[in-house]
Design brief:
The protein is of the alpha/beta class. It has two domains: about 35 residues; about 100 residues, no CATH class. Helices cover about 35% and strands about 30% of the residues. The protein contains two helices and eight strands. An eight-stranded mixed sheet has the order 7-1-4-3-2-6-5-8, with no helix packed on it. The longest helix has 28 residues. The chain starts with a helix and ends with a helix.
């Protein structure tokens, strides 16, 4: 039979191992850190409006995640949001004339950047800048424009009605 002290030591080691495994799992699931960071290169793009885009938002091509947002800064000269994206090294054949747009997952989901590849034979590399961009469509702005257009349409109808009544 095993001595009591040896069994307690085994249980202690098992608990330490379990705590370490749970900590690693928590960090992996949360996305806060990566124990094994993927090789990547940085590409930037300037947008008029990024909506709710956040750091670590996905960068996709055709629905496949090819990178993530690394930094978001404001250009002090143009007042555009400059987004730095880390593109995974395995996707090093993205044409440099590609365009980038900010889209929403579903109706009220998180924002992500979608890159639309074009046809150039030179590719994006570390430090490249994507020139053609499409800003985010912010739902609040669209609703505001819709309400404004409806209210102006009613005013025009009222004015037309007044002109017809005078005749």
């Amino acid at each position: 039979m095993l001595p009591q002290r040896f069994i307690e030591s085994l249980v202690g080691l098992f608990l330490i191992f379990a705590m370490i495994a749970l900590t690693v799992l928590a960090f992996q699931v949360s996305g806060l850190t990566s124990l094994f960071p993927r090789k990547s290169y940085t590409v930037t793009a300037a947008f008029d409006d990024i909506g709710g885009l956040k750091i670590r938002s996905p960068v996709k091509i055709g629905g496949v995640q090819v990178g993530e947002v690394a930094h978001i800064n404001l250009d002090p000269v143009t007042f555009k949001a400059v987004v730095s994206m880390k593109i995974y090294h395995q996707y090093n054949d993205i044409p440099d004339d590609s365009s980038a747009g900010i889209y929403t997952s579903g109706l009220l989901g998180d924002n992500y950047i979608a890159i639309t590849p074009m046809y150039n034979t030179t590719f994006l590399k570390n430090g490249s800048h994507i020139e053609m961009t499409n800003s985010a469509m912010v739902l609040e702005k669209l609703i505001g424009q819709f309400i404004y257009n409806i209210s102006n349409g009613n005013k025009n109808d009222d004015q037309d009605g007044d002109k017809n009544a005078k005749k």
